[in-house]
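explain this:

___
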Amino acid sequence: MSFIDPSQYDPTATSLFTGRSPGGLLSGCIGLDETGSQPLRLAFNPSPSANLLVLGRSSSSALGLFSILMLDLASQLGLPLAQRDSLLHPSFGVLDFLCSADSLQFSSMALSLPMPVKLELAPITHFTSLGDLEYEIANRTELSSALQPRFLFVCGLQAAHNLRQLGAYASVAENRYAPQFRRLLEEGPPRRLHTIVWCNTYQAFELTLSNGFELFGSVLLLDDSGIAPAEILGGSSAPSAAYHIDMGLRTCAVFVPFGLPPQRWCDSAIRAFSRPTSAAGA
């Protein structure tokens, strides 16, 4: 599977980022189309299953995809509402279960955004992000596109033993985070609370969320994901390609993901879409 180096794009004038869209529906770039010429974007509408699952062993491809997606979404969001509200309810959260060099590079990029980001590193025994979002689910009783969207990025679901729902982890008494996680996936999207998950293989994903594909509107298959599109949708598929599967439409398309962008490139992109003139022209 090949991927594209984002550094070949000018980060101050790139078409990868949508730009400010106050109050509008959001879409995020996940890579390029099969021809490698046009950005491919996923919509994050306030509707059931508007979550994203990425399966594949390459951390560079998965976290490169995460980086471009988060940058694109950030370019549309701007600083949410009042500063105090944005601190209490940040637009982005990151659960990094790996703390690898690549995941820490992604986390560093996230923290450099001009808006509050909640980061929890290797939360093996205790973390608060799911509790925060569960509180929001309970309080967002009116479903409306005017709600401030929030996105939780989960890095390395294969290492998230405290989210598993099988075997010794099946008891809520032993693992209170697993039902919180499933509730977020089920009830969050209509309330504009979206979850983006990377897991290295389908087998590891099944250990955590058995029969969980229906909780994701889109599934991206990268290298060595442990499952082929044909096993999900039927039919045949070419090896050594990355696929975008729309679970609602039951369609599959080849796409080209990005590699992990260097921090300097990300900083230039952030400066470009953070300029006051961008907001004024929106």
Remarks:
- The longest strand covers residues 26-32.
- The longest helix spans residues 59-77.
